[in-house]
Amino acid sequence: VQLVESGGGSVQPGGSLRLSCAASGFTFRSYAMTWYRQASGKERGWVATVTSPGGYSYYVDSVKGRFTISRDNAKDTVYLQMNSLKPEDTAVYFCNVKIGLPPVDYWGHGAQVTVDS
């Protein structure tokens, strides 16, 4: 299993970024995909999940209405569109998939997002 994030960077408050996570080594279309984030000095926290099949999406309250998670099963890629970014969104964002029973977590290397004026 390999997960590779891209698209991080620095942006001013109110700006937008789109993260991508390219997956390989498993049947992508069969698994829910999730984004987590970890700010400096804090624990990693859940941000959003998109299911498969169905493509249903779920969000932590702090990003509802600003972030959109989506997936392209033809490209084995999951996205996180982040709009109206705030300084408190600054974190390293990680792509995650849980595979197996009991589930095993697989993580990408992370993508830094910095929101600062």
Structural account:
With about 120 residues, the protein is an all-beta fold. About 0% of the residues lie in helices and about 50% in strands. It has no helices and eleven strands. The strands form two sheets. Strands 2, 4, 5, 6, 9, 10 and 11 form a seven-stranded mixed beta sheet that branches. Strand 4 and strand 5 form a beta hairpin. The relative contact order is 0.31.
Low-confidence stretches: none
Proportion of strand residues: over 45%
Number of strands: 11
- Biggest sheet overview: 7 strands, mixed
Supply the number of helical segments.
0
Concise description?
With about 120 residues, this protein is mainly beta. It is built from no helices and 11 strands. The radius of gyration is 14 Å and the shape is globular.
How do the strands and helices of this protein lay out in sequence?
Layout: E1 2-6, E2 9-11, E3 17-24, E4 33-38, E5 45-50, E6 57-59, E7 67-72, E8 77-82, E9 91-99, E10 104-107, E11 111-115
Parallel strand pairs: 2-11
Antiparallel strand pairs: 1-3, 3-8, 4-5, 4-9, 5-6, 7-8, 9-10, 9-11
Task: Describe this protein with a few key phrases.
mainly beta; 4-stranded antiparallel beta sheet
